[in-house]
Design brief:
There is one protein chain. Helix content is 62%, strand content 4%. The chain is mainly α. Among the domains are: 38 residues; 89 residues, no CATH class; 119 residues, Leucine-rich Repeat Variant (Alpha Horseshoe), CATH 1.25.10. The longest helix is centred in the last third of the chain and has 28 residues. The two termini are 35 Å apart. Bound molecules: 2-acetamido-2-deoxy-beta-D-glucopyranose (2 copies). The site of one 2-acetamido-2-deoxy-beta-D-glucopyranose has 7 residues, from helix 8 and helix 11. The site of one 2-acetamido-2-deoxy-beta-D-glucopyranose (NAG) has 4 residues, from helix 14.
Length: 464
């Protein structure tokens, strides 16, 4: 099978830490971006986006109680909607995501209770399980909580509620159990403290960042991070002398910036852009640079002010050096994709303004100040991009071809004078003619190779 159509990231799995698999596949940073969103330097005016708040942990603990479960001395799975009598021990099974319950063991329980008074999330021993287990278990846990409330028959619930103790009372009893549940905010504060503490080991710091990343995907959580100075702590983490800390700080930031104008604005004010560029410009492990590049594009995306700053700080030179290093082909394609996205984003903003007359003048003005195409041309990106066409992977070529197309307005004469480019395009044309024909014989008349061939044909036409 050919790898056609697959995002590049599937072929280049991300680095792994402590054997933890990062499940998310970055088609780079833009896949989750809402194109309507953009950040102005005046956050109050422009952050209209409301995300539906995912159920808070309190809501999760508020299932419609249908029956009381009678625990034994063995762990047993608790079904959604089942209540446990006071004195039971409840835990989250990390393999299945199910809540499990048994009668408590008095001595042990008293000890854990002390620790849990301040709110430990269920009974999870994070030293025994990988964070990934924890995450998927928590995800299942949340899912389960959602499903149970939507599925239930309301009339039956009302009946059952009438028969059982009021929810409030039940919650209180839950608190007396070993199921004090932290809010996301409490968890984030704890993780930031762990990361910020000089007594934490490197491993603990990385684990804290790794866990934090899970929370800041939610827009509200990322904004809450601002409220107690947590974002700045993570941004300062980019200054760490430990490459792993840099890498995982960038991992958190990439998630926190994504489609989150308020956070993007704060990050610029907190100096994140400079720090990200410094890492890209200096000798660092490839894994760190990958995540930093990801954070950079999350920060720049839909944020013309940041894009201006990026150009002012010499961001394009930094990216150029990065692309020209040996062994960074993966990064090169991502860089080119970033540039493509920035160019088209600006183009769309201007087109939209022309067509709909709905774009705010402020937004348009900020985009107009981003002198991206002229800078790209000046700094040799016409040639750099053309050279990348030599990459062997279809996906890489696809990205490069689309970027060549987007740069055409400014790079046309460069392309014309580049005999290597015409030769390369002609040879790719021949290659994809064969593949597209095969594809057609296989019954795919809107195939991937045919599409690639189309881009090549139109580029060649433009350059004739
Ligand atoms: C992080 O640690 C520093 C130095 O110990 C402290 O001044 C700062 O308040 C801490 N930040 C947070 C958000 O806890
Ligand atoms: C972090 O690094 C940047 C550039 O390397 C430097 O300018 C800045 O002073 C450093 N900040 C801290 C808090 O160490």
């Amino acid at each position: 099978m050919t790898p056609k159509g697959l995002p590049i990231c599937r072929m280049a799995p991300l680095g792994m830490l402590l054997g933890l698999l990062i499940a998310s596949c970055f088609t780079f940073c833009f896949s989750h971006q809402n194109t309507k969103e953009f950040a102005l330097t005046n956050p109050d005016k422009s952050t209209t986006k409301e995300t539906e708040r995912m159920e808070t942990t309190e809501e999760e603990l508020d299932p419609e109680i249908l029956e009381v479960f009678h625990p034994s001395h063995e762990w047993q799975a608790l079904r959604p909607g089942q209540a446990v009598p006071a004195g039971s021990h409840v835990r989250l099974n990390l393999q299945t995501g199910a809540r499990e319950v048994k009668l408590k063991d008095e001595d042990k329980f008293r000890n854990t209770l002390k620790g849990s008074k301040k709110g430990k999330r269920l009974d999870i021993d994070t030293n025994t399980y990988t964070s990934q287990d924890l995450k998927s278990a928590l995800a299942k846990f949340k899912e389960g909580a959602k499903m149970e409330s939507s599925k239930e028959d309301k009339a039956r619930q009302a009946e059952v509620k009438r028969l059982f103790r009021p929810i409030e009372k039940l919650k209180k009893e839950f608190e007396e159990l070993n199921v004090v549940i932290e809010t996301d905010m409490q968890i984030m504060v704890r993780l930031i403290n762990k990361f910020n503490s000089s007594s934490s080991s490197l491993e603990e710091k990385i684990a804290a960042l790794f866990d934090l990343e899970y929370y800041v995907h939610q827009m509200d959580n990322a904004q809450d991070l601002l409220s107690f100075g947590g974002l700045q702590v993570v941004i300062n983490g980019l200054n760490s002398t430990e490459p792993l800390v840099k890498e995982y700080a960038a991992f958190v930031l990439g998630a926190a910036f994504s489609s989150n104008p308020k956070v993007q604005v704060e990050a610029i004010e907190g100096g994140a852009l400079q720090k990200l560029l410094v890492i890209l410009a200096t000798e660092q492990p490839l894994a760190a640079k990958k995540k930093v590049l990801f954070a950079l594009c999350s920060l720049l995306r839909h944020f013309p002010y940041a894009q201006q700053q990026f150009l002012k700080l010499g961001g394009l030179q930094v990216l150029r050096s990065l692309v020209q290093e040996k062994g960074t082909e993966v990064l090169a394609v991502r860089v080119v994709t970033l540039l493509y996205d920035l160019v088209t984003e600006k183009m769309f903003a201007e087109e939209e303004a022309e067509l709909t007359r709905e774009t705010s003048p402020e937004k348009l003005q900020q985009y107009r100040q981003v002198q991206l195409l002229p800078s790209l041309r000046e700094q040799g990106w016409c040639e750099i991009t053309a050279h990348l066409l030599a990459l062997p992977e279809h996906d890489a070529r696809e990205k490069v071809l689309q970027t060549l197309g987007a740069f055409l307005v400014t790079c046309r004469d460069h392309y014309h004078q580049d005999p290597e480019l015409s030769r390369r395009l002609a040879s790719l044309q021949a290659e994809y003619q064969v593949l597209a024909a095969q594809e057609l014989r296989d019954g795919e008349d809107e195939g991937y190779f045919r599409e690639l061939l189309g881009s090549i044909d139109s580029l060649l036409t433009e350059l004739r």
